[in-house]
Specification:
Elements (H helix, E strand, L loop, with lengths): L5 E5 L11 E8 L3 E5 L6 E3 L7 E12 L6 E7 L2
Antiparallel strand pairs: 1-6, 2-5, 2-6, 3-4, 3-5
């Protein structure tokens, strides 16, 4: 059993599904980040999110897509 948040390094993938869902991301190098919401069928691209800070997402996401993601050193926070 896990208590509290779980932090994981992310390799963007169009097929890997996060379980539990991701609620925040950290972007370590500049670029765009494409995400797929928990109940969505189309990805949304975050254009140039600020580097070096955690971004609390307005809704949980199930994937950080390889397609359209150019940012690097991404970390994810899972709270499930």
């Amino acid at each position: 059993m896990t208590f509290g948040p779980n932090y994981v390094a992310v390799t963007p993938s169009d097929s890997t599904v996060f379980a539990p869902a991701v609620t925040a991301i950290f972007v370590g190098s500049s670029g765009n980040v494409a995400v797929l919401g928990l109940n969505d069928t189309a990805a949304v691209t975050m254009v140039s999110p600020t580097v070096g800070v955690w971004h609390k997402l307005p809704y949980p996401i199930q994937k950080i897509m390889a397609t359209n993601t150019s940012a690097g050193s991404i970390l994810a926070c899972q709270t499930g």
